[in-house]
Amino acid sequence: MGEKNEIVYADSFWRDADKLPKEAQEKLPELFEMLAENAFDPRLHTKPLGPPLVGRYSFRITRDWRAAFRFDGDHRVKILMAGNRDKIYQRLKRTL
Q1: Which of 6, 21, 33, 47 has its CA 20 to 30 A from that of 62?
Q2: Cα atoms in the Cβ-side hemisphere of radius 13 Å centred on 30
Q3: What pLDDT, in 10s, does the model give residues 37-91?
């Protein structure tokens, strides 16, 4: 098996995580372990984001909640933020 990804977190992610529903918060440790093993594990439903968010990705926390990340090197994943699927992409655009 290949090298595990190092997972690092933006400060903004932790603020977002505190606001997630309890069900979503409880899933995060398992999802981060999957992300460390393989950022494209099919259970994560990882999607590359299109312009202007090229280079960023999202994965599914629950049906309605997503987390956004980017690769910072070959085996380093930075979790940028989490939020409702209807709003997270607009928030990401404001950080560009």
Answers
A1: 6
A2: 10
A3: 999 999 999 999 999 999 999 999 999 999 999 999 999 999 999 999 999 999 9
What residues pair up with 14 in beta bridges, in sequence order? Answer: none
How many angstroms separate the Cα of 68 from the Cα of each of 4, 12, 76? 19, 11, 14
User: Residue 46, Cβ neighbours under 10 Å: how many?
Assistant: 18
Name which of 90, 41, 42, 46 is nearest 70 in CA terms.
46
Which pTM was predicted? 0.94
**DSSP state for residue 90 in the 8-state scheme:** H
